[in-house]
Amino acid sequence: MEKEQLLMLPGPVPMPERVRYAMMRQAINHRSAEFGAVYADCVRVLKSVFGTANDLFVISGSGTAGMEAAVANFGRDREIACLVNGKFGERLFKISQRYGKAHEVASEWGTPLNLEALEGRLEQGAEVVTLVHNETSAGIKNPAQEVGRLARKHDALFVMDGITSIGGDVVEADSWGVDVAIVGSQKCLAAPAGLAAVSVSSKAWERLCKNPPYYLDLAAYKKSAGGTPMETPYTPAVPLFLALREACLMVEEEGISNRIARHRRMAGAVRAAAGAWGLSLFPTIDGRHEYSNTVTAISYPAGVRDSEMRDIIKKMGIIIAGGQDHLKGKIFRIGSMGAIGAPEILATVAATQYALTKLGYKVQGDGVQAASEVLG
Amino acid sequence: MEKEQLLMLPGPVPMPERVRYAMMRQAINHRSAEFGAVYADCVRVLKSVFGTANDLFVISGSGTAGMEAAVANFGRDREIACLVNGKFGERLFKISQRYGKAHEVASEWGTPLNLEALEGRLEQGAEVVTLVHNETSAGIKNPAQEVGRLARKHDALFVMDGITSIGGDVVEADSWGVDVAIVGSQKCLAAPAGLAAVSVSSKAWERLCKNPPYYLDLAAYKKSAGGTPMETPYTPAVPLFLALREACLMVEEEGISNRIARHRRMAGAVRAAAGAWGLSLFPTIDGRHEYSNTVTAISYPAGVRDSEMRDIIKKMGIIIAGGQDHLKGKIFRIGSMGAIGAPEILATVAATQYALTKLGYKVQGDGVQAASEVLG
After folding, report:
1. pTM above 0.80, yes or no
2. B174-187: per-residue pLDDT in tens?
3. Which end of chain B is flanked by fewer CB atoms within 10 Å, N or C?
4. Is the same domain home to B39 and B143?
C-alpha cells in the first residue's frame, strides 16, 4: 500500500489527525447526554461560521442531502428562481425541478449572475431564490449579499448553498438575509465527508412546506434537537459527528477571522503562482463577482493536455482537479480548503510547475517563488 | 472521561477495533479506483448476506434513508399494504403515507401479522407490500418467506426491512421473493451507524417510479455503480465505507452460517437466563412467528421499575434498552447483534440478575449459569 495522497481538491480535503482519530472510538449511544453534547458543540460553532442565530441542524448525508432538505422543505409547489452559473447551481435547479416550479436563471459557467433576470422572476412572483455562493466548478464566488437584498425586497426565501464557502470565507447569513444556508462537512471545515448542516430562519419556518422526504423532514430535526438530550430524529452517523465536533473546535480555536485570512492567503498563493507562470485564471472577472478563496481555477495553456498534466502530478502523490462537464480539459483546479497550509500549497505549486514545464509550456516566471512570497 | 460503555442495544453495537481503526485514515478521493474497490468489496459481501444476486447499493444515510429509498422509488402513487406489528413497521407505514396510498395492515405489537388482511389488500389491488423482518421493538421475527409467497402470488412488489436481521440471521432475499431489501450498518454487521444498503430486483426496476427524492434516486445509484470506477452519485461518507468494508470482510472470514449460528447462541443464552429467572419473554409466541435472534425482549416482573433497573446496570457500564412507546416500562431488551460474544452476554446477564435481585425480585434460578451452559 502506498502512502496517502495529498488531496488538493475542492473537497474532500485532508483532515487533521485530531479529526481523524476522533472517529475510531467505540460506538456510543446516540440517545444520550454524551451524544447531545457532541451535537451541541457542532451547532454552536457552525452557527458562528454561518453568521446566524437561526436554528441549525446536522443531517447524516452529503451536501446534496442538505441542498435537497432546503428545497423540499421550503420550495415544494412554489415558484423557484434558480441562479445558475456553474455545476452546483445546475444541481440546485435539478433538485428544485423535483419539488416546485423551477425557473433557471442562467448565465455561462463562471460569468456573472443574471440579476436583472432574477429581478424579473421575482417581480413575476418567484417565492424562493437559490444560489451557490462559492461555485467550485467555475472558481468563482457569487455576490450573495446582493442576491439577499433582492430576495428580501420581494419577500422571497433565500436558499444559499454555502457548501464550499462556509468555514473558509466570510459568510454572514443573517445580515445577508439568507433564510436557509447549507454547508458540507468535507470542505472548509476539514471534517470527513458525509454530513451536511442546514440553518433555517424564522421566516422560512413560517413558510414550511408539507410532505418533505421523511429522512429530510426539518420539522422532525427541530423537534429532536429541542429535546433533552439534543438528538437527531433518525440514527446519526456517530463517528462523523465526533469528527465534526473536533473540526469545529479547531475552527473555534483558530478563530474564524484567522481561518478566513488563512484561506485567502492560500488561494492568493496559488493565484500568484498562476500569474507568475503567465497563465490566466478562469474565468475573467469583471467586477460583478470575485474569485473563490477556497479553490483556484486556471486555464490550460495551448498544448498542455489535462490528463497528462494531472497524471504527472498524481505520480508525485498529489491530486488536483480537472474541469467538470464542458470545462473538462480546459481548466485545472487547485483546492485550498480546510486545514491546508503552506506545505501543501508549496508542494502543489512546485509539482504543477514541473508538470507544465515537462509538457512543453515555458513558464514566464517562477510560480514557487511567487507563492512563497505570499505564504512567507 | 470514563471508559467506554458496553452497548447491548438493538443497534448501535460495539465495533471490532479493526472496523473502528479503518476510519482514521486520511481522506481519499471518492472518484478513484481505490474507493471503487472499497465499495465493490462491500457490495460483494452484502449480496451474500442478503441472499441476492440483484443490484445492491450503499447509501450514505441511516436505515431510515434506506427504507425511504425503497418506498419512494417503488411505491409512489401506488397502493401499498404495510404490515405493522411494531414500531418499525409503523415507520414504514408513515413513510409509505408520504408517497402512495398506504394501508396499514396492523396487529398489536408482537402479535402475529394479519396475513388474512394482507391477502385481502392484495386482492383489492395492493401493488407493494412492506414488512419489517426482525421487529426489534417487539423482540420478534416475522415470517418473511410467507409474506413473499403472498406478494408473488398477487404480483406485488415485496419491500423488506432487514435492517436488524441481515448479517445476523437467515435471509434469502431472492428465494423468498424479496424485491427490495434494506440493511443498516450499525446492527448485525457491527459497522458504524450512518450507512444503509438496498437491493433491487429486476421486477422492481421494471416498476421504477418517477421523481423520487434526488438524494435517494436509485436509478442514479445504479448508473454510478455501473461505471469504472464504481462510484456513488453524491459524495459518500468515506470513513463509514472504509469501516463497512472491514466489517464485511470480517463477515466473510467468519462465514455467514457461523455468524448466524453465533447470533442464535447469543440470543439463546439471554433467553435461557430469562427462563432461569422465571421471567417471561415478550411476546407470547404462538407458532406464527418466532423470537428474534438478534434482540431479546423480556417482560418486567411486577414491582421492578424500568428506569431503576437500567440505571443500576448502567452504573456497571452496560447499556440495555427499555421498551418503546406503549411498551415503555413493560419490557426491557438486550441486543446481541454484530460482534457480540460470550464476554458481553455474560456481563450483561450477570448485571441484569444483580439489578433484578437488588430491586426485590426473587429470581427462580441462576441466569448466569443458564447462559453459561448455552455459551460454553
Report:
1. yes
2. 999 999 999 999 99
3. N
4. yes
Place of cell 486556471: A298
Amino acid at A49: V
CA distance B39 to B225: 9
With cell 449460528, the residue in question is B261
Domain at B342, CATH number: 3.90.1150.10
State whether A216 and B215 contact (CB < 8 Å).
yes
- % of chain A exceeding 70 in pLDDT: 100
The cell numbers describing B103, all together, are: 394501508
User: How many domains are contained in chain A?
Assistant: 2
Tell me, yes or no, whether A45 and A154 share the same domain: yes
B360 and B339 within one domain = yes
Tell me the three state secondary structure of residue A200.
strand
Q: With respect to residue A1, please indicate whether it lies within any of the assigned structural domains.
A: no
Cell 481538491 identifies what position? A9
- Strand-pairing partners, residue B102, are B80
Q: Select from A9, A13, A24 the residue whose CB has the most chain B CBs within 10 Å, as the one to mutate to test that interface.
A: A24
Among A254, A277, A310, the domain-final residue is A254
Whether residue B192 is contained in a domain is answered as yes
Interface test with B, best of A18, A73, A163, A214 (most B CBs within 10 A): A214
Of B22, B35, B25, give the one whose Cα is nearest residue B225: B35
State ipTM.
0.97
Using CB atoms, which residue from B7, B23, B68 is nearest to A215?
Answer: B68
Interstrand relation of A101-106 and A79-84 (parallel, antiparallel or unpaired): parallel
Listed in sequence order, the residues at least 6 apart from A273 whose beta carbon sits closer than 8 Å to its beta carbon are A349, A352, A353, A367, A368, A370, A371
* Of B222, B254, B286, the domain-final residue: B254
pLDDT of residue B136: 97
Show the low-confidence residues of chain B (pLDDT under 50): none
Residue A333: which domain range? 6-10+255-375
Q: Which amino acid is at B167?
A: G
A343, three cell numbers: 506545505
β B134-135/B195-200 pair status:
unpaired
